[in-house]
Fold this protein.
Amino acid sequence: MSKHSKGARYELEARKLLEKEGFLVEKKNYNRWASKDFYNLFDILAIGEYTRLIQIKTNINHFYTAKKDIARWLDEHKINSITFEVWVKEPRKAWRMEIVS
């Protein structure tokens, strides 16, 4: 299984979880000339009672790196009305979800 297909499978699983909770979920369309992420950091945009930007990871080391990158991005942009999250799904383990502030 390639890294791309594993990531796509976990993104779909996260999308279904969010839709089940009542969120309207959007993923950016991919093309080879533009980033496939929102703001080059987030895989999923979920809109409901509040807005969530979520980065999905499949490796715990990448999870910690993403948290640092998002925290650095938040320091630059000072956005308070949106929840920024990093989720990691390792094989045969439950989702680990953390809010970055």
Notes: The mean pLDDT is 90. The first strand starts at residue 24 and ends at 27. DSSP finds two helices and five strands in the chain.
